């Protein structure tokens, strides 16, 4: 006997494994059952989760807007401090030049030209040092506030993305399942095409067992020409109706192994890949 692996992608052959016939399916319309016997449509739950996600996103965007406003306020304060410091620097320079001119006139009168030069140099150095220290102190405080605001914003974004990721995956699963069911309802011959694609890849066609949903089995039996062609190219063909197989999908057992073309298996593989990608994106520095 042979079975399939739930972790293998569509079309990959698994050799020499026993067939597991346990029911694994995506229910077409079965509602969830809660305490007290009440039943709720799963899509209502998805809609509620979607509304909650939208609410959290709106809150996140509001916090982001407030942080941006705070950043803009800090930038404006930074520019104001810069202009104020530049004005003070110009004023100090003008005052120094005025004092220097007065000192020069006074020194000239006293005949102390050399002392004037030394005094002027010391005055310049003292004013420059004082202005630099004040400028540095002011802008260090503003820079710290800016860095803290940016770090807070990034932390909030990371936390919200990590919290909302599982909800987003569940919403994606429900929407994709609905799309698949709609495609199956619109195209009743979908399973026939899937089976033909699988058989095009199978080299050993001596014995083939095809597991399909009972509704799809009826479809195969009605297609007399297709069934005649299948029996012509396959030595031993067995068509088995299995209610655990989703409508529109199938499993094919051959001498080489089992091909799992059920929608549930493919959805699970895609879900694992998405969760892995989300996990990697959250840990990227």
TrEMBL record:
Needed for flagellar regrowth and assembly. Belongs to the FliH family. Residues 50-163 form a coiled coil. Residues 143-269 form the Flagellar assembly protein FliH/Type III secretion system HrpE domain. Keywords: Bacterial flagellum biogenesis, Bacterial flagellum protein export, Cell projection, Cilium, Coiled coil, Flagellum, Protein transport, Transport. It comes from Thermovirga lienii (strain ATCC BAA-1197 / DSM 17291 / Cas60314). Pfam families: FliH. This is Flagellar assembly protein FliH/Type III secretion system HrpE. GO terms for cellular component: cytosol. GO terms for biological process: bacterial-type flagellum organization; protein transport. InterPro entries: Flagellar_FliH/T3SS_HrpE, T3SS_Stator/FliH.
């Amino acid at each position: 006997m042979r079975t399939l692996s739930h972790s293998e992608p569509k079309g990959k052959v698994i050799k020499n494994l026993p067939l597991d016939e346990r029911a694994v399916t995506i229910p077409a319309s079965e509602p969830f059952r809660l305490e007290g016997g009440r039943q709720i449509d799963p899509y209502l739950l998805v809609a509620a989760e979607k509304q909650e996600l939208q609410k959290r996103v709106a809150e996140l965007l509001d916090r982001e807007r407030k942080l941006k406003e705070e950043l803009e306020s800090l930038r404006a304060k930074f520019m104001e401090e810069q202009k104020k410091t530049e004005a003070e620097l110009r004023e100090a320079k003008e005052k120094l030049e005025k004092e220097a001119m007065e000192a020069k006139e006074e020194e000239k009168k006293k005949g102390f030209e050399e002392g004037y030069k030394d005094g002027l140099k010391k005055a310049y150095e003292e004013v420059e040092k004082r202005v630099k220290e004040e400028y540095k102190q002011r802008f260090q405080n503003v820079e710290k506030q800016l860095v803290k605001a940016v770090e807070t914003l990034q932390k909030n974004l990371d936390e919200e993305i990590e919290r909302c990721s599982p909800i987003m995956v569940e919403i994606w699963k429900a929407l994709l399942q609905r799309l698949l069911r709609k495609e199956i309802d619109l195209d009743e011959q979908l399973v026939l095409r899937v089976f033909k694609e699988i058989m095009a890849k199978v080299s050993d066609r001596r014995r083939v067992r095809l597991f399909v949903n009972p509704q799809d089995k009826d479809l195969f039996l009605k297609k007399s020409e297709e069934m005649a062609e299948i029996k012509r190219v396959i030595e031993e063909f067995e068509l088995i109706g299995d209610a655990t197989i989703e409508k529109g999908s199938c499993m094919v057992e051959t001498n080489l192994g089992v091909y799992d073309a059920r929608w549930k298996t493919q959805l699970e593989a895609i879900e694992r890949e998405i969760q892995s990608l989300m996990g990697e994106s959250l840990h990227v520095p």
